[in-house]
Every structure is written in structure tokens, then in C-alpha cells.
Amino acid sequence: MAETLRTLDPKEMGRRVRIRREEKGLSRDSLAEKLNVTAQFIADIENGNKGISIKKLYLLCQILGVTADYILAGSMEAEEEDPKAGMAREEIMAFLQKCDAEQLDGIGKIARIYADGLRMK
Predict the structure, then answer these.
(1) Residue closest to 66 by CA, chosen among 18, 110, 112, 107
(2) pLDDT given at position 78
(3) CATH architecture of 7-74
(4) Is residue 61 a contact partner of residue 68, using CB atoms and an 8 Å limit?
(5) What are the residue ranges spanned by the domains of the chain?
(6) Residue 2's pLDDT is what?
(7) % of the chain at pLDDT higher than 70
């Protein structure tokens, strides 16, 4: 039986770059400066309109603190699950990282109430 190979999705790759850049508090201009490219090039990568050389990918991963596998394919955990669930998880995690302790406590309470309601169905 032949192995099923995944294809690279430039838009998803760009989305992961944008999310991680924002998590690190970097503007497109500051990331562009670190990579020695233009801010427009960063925008093109984030929108899935341009690719990136291996050399620049290696540097980008170091700046963003992620692996090339994460940038190219997403988290390893998301490989076997619904891609939409993986995308939602990443967006939620990016949001949660910007919350303070009080906000996180409130969100946790809401999530528990919601989950308990689903179990009662």
C-alpha cells in the first residue's frame, strides 16, 4: 500500500508565520529587518503568495523559536486530526498567550461550563 504524502499549503504556512510573529511581538518591519528582506516580502509569505529559501527558513525558525516542520506542516499532533481543529487550536492558543491571569481564570470557567453542558446532552 502506497504512503499518502501531504502537500505543502503556502497559505497555512504563512498563517503559522504570522501567528508566531505576533506571539513574539514582532512587527513585519522588525522581522523583515532580522531576515534582511522587505516587509512586503514578509506580507507575501504570510499571505501564501511567496515561498522562502531554505537559508531564510532556517533563520526564520531561529527568530520565531519554532522548527521548520512547524512552519512547513504545523504541529506534529495536528497531522492525524481534522486540519480545521488544528487551526482553531493554534488561533485559540495565540489568543490565550495574550491574556493575563484573571482573564485566563474567566476563560477556564466558561470552558468548563460549556464542556459540562455538552456532556449533559
Answers:
(1) 18
(2) 39
(3) Orthogonal Bundle (1.10)
(4) yes
(5) 7-74, 81-121
(6) 64
(7) 90
C-alpha cell at 26: 514582532
Per-residue HEC secondary structure of the chain comes to: CCCCCCCCCHHHHHHHHHHHHHHCCCCHHHHHHHHCCCHHHHHHHHCCCCCCCHHHHHHHHHHHCCCHHHHHHCCHHHHHCCHHHHHHHHHHHHHHCCCCHHHHHHHHHHHHHHHHHHHHC
Measured over the CA atoms of residue 35, residue 38, residue 39 and residue 40, the dihedral's sign is negative
Identify the residue with better confidence: 42 or 79: 42
For the question of whether the overall pTM of this predicted structure is more than 0.85, the answer is: no
* Whole-number Å distance between alpha carbons of 33 and 35: 5
Query: How buried is residue 14: exposed, middle or buried, by Cβ count under 10 Å (0-12/13-18/19+)?
Result: buried
Summarised one tens digit per residue, pLDDT across range 87-115 is: 777 788 888 888 898 998 888 889 888 88
Do 17 and 67 meet the contact criterion of CB atoms below 8 Å apart? no
